[in-house]
Amino acid sequence: MFDSDLSTRTLSTNLSSKVVEPTNLVPLQLGIEDDIPPHLNPEISNLHPAKLCERDSAIAPIVELNPASTANGKMPEVILDALPVVALPESEDFPEFADMATEEEAVPEAEKKGFVPVLKNRNFLALWSGQVFSQIADKVYLVLAIAIIANHFQSANQPISVWVSAIMIAFTIPAVLFGSVAGVFVDRWSKKWVLVATNLLRGMLVLSLPMLLWISKDFKLGELPLGFCILLVLTFLVSTLTQFFAPAEQAVIPLVVENRLLLSANSLYTITMMASVIVGFAVGEPLLALADTLAAHIGLGWDVGKEIVVGGSYAIAGLLLLALQPNEKPHPSDLEPPHIWQDLREGLLYLKGQSRVRNALIQLVIVFSVFAALSVLAVRLAELLPGLKASQFGFLMASGGAGIAAGAALLGHIREVSHGRLSLYGSIGLAASLLGLSVFPNLLIVALVLTMLMGFFGALVAVPMQTTIQAETPEQMRGKVFGLQNSAINIALSLPLALAGVAETILGLKSVFLGLAILAIAGGLVNWYISRND
């Protein structure tokens, strides 16, 4: 590994008869895979691989010397004979080494927190830019599907809910069928090209809609218009591609972002997701109407403006992601065909053996279940609140979304608090907000504040738990784990939609909110206990 004679000669030249004090030596700049020379072993009392320091992007073990071997405060000759050239005195004794400041020391304190360091990362910037367009396209796609139904298939006196329900089912089925399986393939494929291909293919599918609808407009498949069946198939395919995109996106984040910045990266991801929800559902319809108007104004002829906005957003996301350069390490299994059930079993066994990752996933499921239930209960809550109608439940949901964005923004500037403690604080706040809604279900301002606090504290749980899963899952397992996470969260989002309304009818709104509060605090306490003991 070293040339000890060269090291000795170099040191003797530079030190010029100075006595080298052990305190004046910087830690050896050894790579994590380097070996300590065997003849150093008698002089070293402890080598702590876990005590690592980042020096110029290299990882160096801290070597502790036996106090008996540093008698009279001088370094033993056997150590000096083997020290590599990089073991140098501090800069105050030798000015020529003053420029060897670490990268960490060179970063201003103000830039170590917040989103600035993350956005300076070109790879993350490419990923985040692609996420912006992809997330907006995902949310606006449902608005597009409803607009197509209203313009092409709905009769004058026919409710649109039946048509929309079919679209929602077509969008949900792939999440249940392929959410876990997709992660198996993501682990074996290039994650960059999964991200690029899924966006470009979704863009092509959406852009093909006007032509397909025009060709099929006079045909039927049984009692259903053929065009609507085509819309169902395309929705199914778009959702299927999304199942591959989601675990690949989550798996790439820790490949392009340092561990110390993962919390900020996930906070920015969450803010973007909530902004896309607001843009998609609140601004989606007028945005698509404007696109149709512009398309007609420039003489495109067909009613294609809506499809160009959505399909174009997917395509732009794919093109932006071409700039992504993740540090992916090929694995021998990449060349083998996937063994789907065996790989899924490996993912489940990994979760079984990793209590922190498993519990973080359970915490995410609890939080998503609470907010899925809130989306149903908000309708009943809006009906009870003075000044609101049931159809205006969106104000409550928007308040919760604003709270999530605020909580994620705060987390982007936090470094000192552990993920387990953040989750505990968030769970306590989430439970307190739900308890408040059970006590004060008839006060409008209070309800808006409490739903905002629900979102805020929910972010304190969800973002750190997502970061924990990313940081503690090895690269070769991330696709499987995030695929399982995707399936679990989809189930967590689906079951409360079916059960919350029934529970509210049988038990009442106050009792359901109280039950959700107990669930939230129980999850937080269990996670904190496991994190503390680990």
Describe the model.
It is a single chain. With 534 residues, the protein is mainly α. 68% of the residues lie in helices and 4% in strands. A two-stranded antiparallel ribbon has the order 1-2. A two-stranded antiparallel ribbon has the order 3-4. A hairpin with a 2-residue loop joins strand 1 (44-55) and strand 2 (58-65). The two termini are 36 Å apart.
Indicate the topology.
Blueprint: H1 4-15, E1 44-55, E2 58-65, H2 77-82, H3 103-106, H4 116-119, H5 122-152, H6 161-188, H7 191-207, H8 209-215, E3 220-221, E4 224-225, H9 226-256, H10 262-297, H11 305-320, H12 340-353, H13 355-384, H14 394-411, H15 419-439, H16 444-472, H17 475-507, H18 509-533
Antiparallel strand pairs: 1-2, 3-4
Number of strands: 4
The fraction of residues in strands falls at under 5%
- Give the neighbour order of strands across the main sheet: 1-2
* Number of helices, where a helix is a run of at least 4 consecutive DSSP H or I residues: 18
Helix/strand-derived class? mainly alpha
Outline: globular
Kindly report how far apart the N and C termini lie: 36 Å
How helix-rich are the residues, as a percent range? Answer: 55-70%
Element order, helices and strands?
HEEHHHHHHHEEHHHHHHHHHH
Note the main sheet: 2 strands, antiparallel
- Mean of the pLDDT scores? 74
Gyration radius, in Å: 28 Å
Low-pLDDT windows of residues: 1-107
